[in-house]
Amino acid sequence: MEAKENGASKKPSSGGIAGPTNPMVTPLLTDLYQFTMAYAYWKAGKHQERAVFDLYFRKNPFGGEYTVFAGLEECIRFIANFKLTEEEIDFVRQSLSSSCEDGFFDYLRGVDCSDVEVYAIPEGTVVFPKVPLMRVEGPIAVVQLLETPFVNLINYASLVSTNAARHRHVAGKSKTLLEFGLRRAQGPDGGVGASKYCYIGGFDATSNVAAGKLFGIPLRGTHSHAFVSSYMNLDEITDKSLRRKDGSSTCDDFVIVVQTWLSKIQLSNGVFGETNQSELAAFTSYALAFPDNFLALVDTYDVMRSGVPNFCAVALALNDLGYKAVGIRLDSGDLAYLSCEVRKFFCSIEKEFGVPEFGKLAITASNDLNEETLDALNKQGHEVDAFGIGTYLVTCYAQAALGVVFKLVEINNQPRIKLSEDVSKVSIPCKKRCYRLYGKEGYPLVDIMTGENEPPPKVGERILCRHPFQESKRAYVVPQQVEELLRCYWPGSSDKKKDTLPALRDIREGCIKQLEIMRPDHMRRLNPTPYKVSVSAKLYDFIHFLWLNEAPVGELQ
Prior knowledge:
557 residues, nicotinate phosphoribosyltransferase, six-stranded parallel β-sheet, EC 6.3.4.21
């Protein structure tokens, strides 16, 4: 069951963890300079030096103030199976300078991640800039080879999960969200990845059959305009029989029942004339194929004059035989207006013919939807129950990348710092512990980073939280709950306790709960309040001591 939940591309490693979902994720999925640096480390005898790297991002995407962390499981799958094949080593040899010594390639044959340790925030957690999403410790040459694949696996996953969460926030809890982006995604990997990570971010189902098989994500889909326009008339339906849902008898001519209901609707309503009969034939044929799951696309010709009346006729015919139709899909036009008109029509049918719950049939909308259109629909007022969202969701049209970085913060127990004239690009040195502090109302108040050996914050005890770089920004916090964020997901050869990777459904549920406990002003679309990320007083002092120590002193002439 776990393999289906979370996907698998190859047999599990000796540690029982399957390889990455995408078989292209190999040790060669990296930048050339990772191998050139590895050789230079090896040549200098530095390759076994113990290094610590932080993986984090500098700015929240989409103009918002939060991000959903995703992609961790694929990183763990990658390092659990990290081993260069002889063929891959030969290619590396061809790609590097001919002056590289043979001993380096002998070294590569023995490289794995048994001496690497990975600490990470749980996948699906709401996260913020500068806080390490992952801390990777190990021999510097090996960890350097992990940089590009880790950044690649986290960047898009976190970006599209965040995009999905933002769409869910605008749509509201009660609406069904369907990911329909496969045909517009950036290639197969973008399509499959989007389905997985949109599910984590709060979407309910996908149209992507491969993702359904790999990850156990619920599938949704009915028919396209092509199916409707492929029919010419009702005479094309050769097998017209349909067995009652309870199996007690068979209706020999379902088409006649449909036509009878259409006549009744026309007499009672009087608003529309003759409907499109080829559309009626398509709907009838689809209902005969899927009587338990009849949902019709009603905008091929005319929504209110043809599509909806034709759907209702078929739905009422199904009702006569004990089946309940699902509803309709709108893929064009004024979705707010049309959805309201369709709901009125459904309610009038329920009242006129006494069919319980007919007025509550589902209305699904698609057609290049995004955050802005969902927000506009909410302001206009609509009757849509489900949204099918594709292009703007899976391509992350509003922002191309998250901007994840991977920075050295310690080597041989010596803290290191990366400086820049742009303060936002200055790294926070040393191996750190990260905590989330909660206030009296249960909301997270601030994330704080401390040195590894500092005592942790305690519930009820006041702690000074400082902005990493701005001296005047500081505040005392008395936390009502303290949550340590980084957990060990890959202990390497150490005896540290390893956290297990949860099933995809559990990651999704955890993400939804995280989003629900965030303070509303951090989550809003317009002018959200920045969430506070801080360091302890001791770490603040050390950052600035190291900064002054490493920065060259200029001389004025």
